[in-house]
Design brief:
163 residues, 6 helices, mainly alpha, Four Helix Bundle (Hemerythrin (Met), subunit A)
Length: 163
């Protein structure tokens, strides 16, 4: 594995699950979210924490497909902000948290398999190189981790926990 791949891997992991200097990463932002807070929206048409989780999983999947030059469909219907399951219960919430974990792991597997010189070659049909897309997805995770933290605080102020 090249030095660049290690740096990219470290960046992806910091944004997703390891200790980050900038504050909570995506996994930390999602840890302990109650079901009531996961589905709460600040107003109609705005994303929920659950919707942001699926959005992050979708884009990890899309970046992986772009790098591979593949077109495997995402596990959930809808693009960009996939549809929440028809049953918004704890079982489905946990399943979607696992989906996000699997998409992250699959993206790391693609990075680990890439030859170093392939990181800076444009992916077929895309303007960005794999390196640019991987840095972008780390920034995407960081952005949405902050957004999820803000939504959680709003939800906690407006939606009491179930007793």
């Amino acid at each position: 594995m090249s030095h660049h791949a290690i740096s990219l891997r470290g960046l992806l992991e910091e944004a997703y699950r390891t200790t980050a200097w900038h504050g909570p990463n995506l996994k930390t932002a999602l840890r302990g979210v109650s079901l009531r807070h996961a589905i709460w929206r600040p107003r109609p048409g705005r994303p929920s924490v659950w919707g942001l989780l699926l959005h992050c999983a979708f884009w990890k999947h899309r970046v992986r497909m772009r790098i591979l030059g593949a077109d495997e469909p995402f596990a959930r219907a809808g693009a960009n902000f996939p549809h929440l399951p028809s049953q918004t219960d704890a079982k489905h919430w946990r399943a979607d948290v696992r989906l996000l974990d699997r998409e992250h792991a699959a993206l790391l597997d693609v990075l680990d398999a890439l030859p170093p010189r392939a990181l800076d070659r444009r992916s077929r049909g895309h303007r960005q190189t794999p390196r640019e897309m991987l840095v972008g997805i780390a920034l995407h995770d960081t952005y949405h981790a902050g957004q999820i933290r803000a939504l959680r605080k709003l939800a906690e102020a407006r939606v009491p926990r179930a007793r």
